[in-house]
Structures are given as C-alpha cells and as structure tokens.
From TrEMBL:
<dbReference type="InterPro" id="IPR033390">
    <property type="entry name" value="Rv2179c-like"/>
</dbReference>
<protein>
    <submittedName>
        <fullName>Exonuclease</fullName>
    </submittedName>
</protein>
<feature type="domain" description="3'-5' exoribonuclease Rv2179c-like">
    <location>
        <begin position="3"/>
        <end position="159"/>
    </location>
</feature>
<keyword id="KW-0540">Nuclease</keyword>
<dbReference type="InterPro" id="IPR036397">
    <property type="entry name" value="RNaseH_sf"/>
</dbReference>
<dbReference type="Pfam" id="PF16473">
    <property type="entry name" value="Rv2179c-like"/>
</dbReference>
<dbReference type="GO" id="GO:0004527">
    <property type="term" value="F:exonuclease activity"/>
</dbReference>
<keyword id="KW-0378">Hydrolase</keyword>
<keyword id="KW-0269">Exonuclease</keyword>
<dbReference type="InterPro" id="IPR012337">
    <property type="entry name" value="RNaseH-like_sf"/>
</dbReference>
C-alpha cells in the first residue's frame, strides 16, 4: 500500500455546487519528491469570494485552468505510476479534502482509484498521543502556504515523523 497525502483548495464548502480550484498530492516515502499539482476550471457559476481568496487565485484566473476531467484522469495515471499496491488517501482534514477528490473522480471518471475510504492525519497523531486535543501542526517542516503541494508535503513530513519518532506502525511503499 502507498500513502498519498492530498490537500485541496476550493471556492466553496461542497463539491458540485462549488468547485475545487486546485489540489496537490505527495507520495509519502523517504524523499517526498513525487508530487502532483492540478488546477481545475470551475464547474459551477457559484463561488464564495472568501473561500476562493484562500487559494490565491482570482475567479478570472480560474477560468483559464484545465478541464477537470483531464486533470482527474492525469491524477489517476500519476497514482497508478507512483503507487505500489492499493493507494491510500490521507490528508489533514479528510472530511473536506476527500469529499472533493472523491466527488470529482466519480463525477468525471466514474471511479475513484482510492476506493471508498480515507485516513486523517490528525486522528493518527491524537491516537498516538492518547489525547483527542493534541496539536501536531508544529511538526511540519514545510511552511503551510495554502499552495496544496506545500501543504501536502508538510503533512507528509508529519506522517513520516509519526512513523520514525513516535513508532506508528505503518508500511510506506
């Protein structure tokens, strides 16, 4: 199994009514050098300016981004190329990130290479600490910039820390 850390930016709270603006993915291995970055053209006329502002893009800029079906197809190929065994989706906030990635895969490709489940980095850390209020973001090495590849890499660094320094039993291929 290969763990793929994912982070997304959107222009609203839910897929379908709103759009995923961009996303990044990092294969969690020793190097963290296998990355994917996609910028997607809006699928809806609706958007929340405050949500969009987090991504750093204007609505006008997003209109020139790539076709979502093409981006999701390219991402699926990237997953197949870099994943050994079943790919495992993991993110900082999988309730949000997973919702968009899963919806986009099913909507545009009719399938999701990650299957039907995901993992949440925060829960792994809290479990190791035996404290549901434990804070972990200080363990990131890469600055959290809201560029999804940076954010995914920082979160992947934390997952590696959980394995190496805290004894998390996890197979990273």
């Amino acid at each position: 199994m290969s763990y793929i850390m994912v982070d997304i930016e959107s222009d609203g709270p839910i897929p379908g009514d709103f759009s995923m603006v961009c996303f990044g993915a990092v294969l969690v291995d020793g190097e963290l050098d296998k990355t994917f970055y996609g910028k997607l053209k809006p699928i809806s006329g609706k958007y929340n300016p405050d949500a969009l502002a987090v991504s750093g893009f204007t609505r006008e800029e997003t209109m020139d981004f790539e076709d979502p079906e093409k981006v999701m197809s390219t991402f699926e190929e990237w997953i197949k190329t870099h994943s050994k065994g079943r790919p495992i989706f993991i993110s900082d906030n999988n309730g949000f990130d997973w919702m968009f990635i899963c919806w986009y895969f099913h909507h545009f490709l009719g399938r999701n290479p990650f299957g039907y489940s995901s993992r949440r980095l925060s829960d792994l850390y809290c479990g190791l600490e035996r404290d549901t209020f434990a804070q972990w973001k200080h363990l990131r090495k890469t600055e959290h910039t809201h560029h999804p590849v940076d954010d995914a890499r920082g979160n992947a660094e934390v997952l590696l820390y959980l394995k190496k320094e805290m004894g998390l039993k996890i197979a990273l291929k």
